[in-house]
Amino acid sequence: MRETRNNPLRIAAMISGGGRTVLNLHERIASGDLRAVIEVVVSSRGDALGVDRVRAVGLRTVIVDRCAHDDATFQRRLTEAVGDVDLVCLAGFLSLWRFPPAMFGRVINIHPALLPDFGGPGMYGRRVHEAVLAAGRTESGCTVHVCDDRYDNGPTILQRRVPVLPDDTPDLLAARVFEQERVAYPEAVKLFCDNRVLVSGRTVTVTA
After folding, report:
1. pTM higher than 0.85 for the full model?
2. Catalytic annotation, pick one of 26, 69, 111, 129
3. Are the beta carbons of 110 and 185 closer than 8 angstroms?
4. Which CATH class is domain 110-180?
């Protein structure tokens, strides 16, 4: 029998862009769908559109500018900014965070493709959807996965799929995939809220 969580899941979110994924989680929390609280949003860019958006809904935001620090300082300040939370949700965060090993299994990401395909360094945003179309795939989707020390490499928690249509453009496909991201990430976070995710090496087990 899994242990019941008594307190809301404490989340840190990390962004580099528009912040739509964080706002989606915030809306799900506000509606009561998720028993959680976003304690901090960490942005790798001060000029990211998402900074103003998440501040507008009252979320505490910390800027750790990737361009203003050497790598060792950047990594240390990211870890300090995240602080002591139960779960870290990468939400369009484009830098590689080498988090402390003790946090493995508590750092997750959502990627706009069906990993392991179309992942890795440089594969983000519109580039992913362009690559899917160029490869002639008939299906795409999104993947929520546990993070490790490589881009888009950790074990999968869940995926959602969409068809690739004959007249798709990268933007049309991106919009269809994002609608599934809006479902998939809250679904994955709820599994953590309910203590249903067990991570062992490259294996994720979702308990009943």
Report:
1. yes
2. 111
3. yes
4. alpha beta
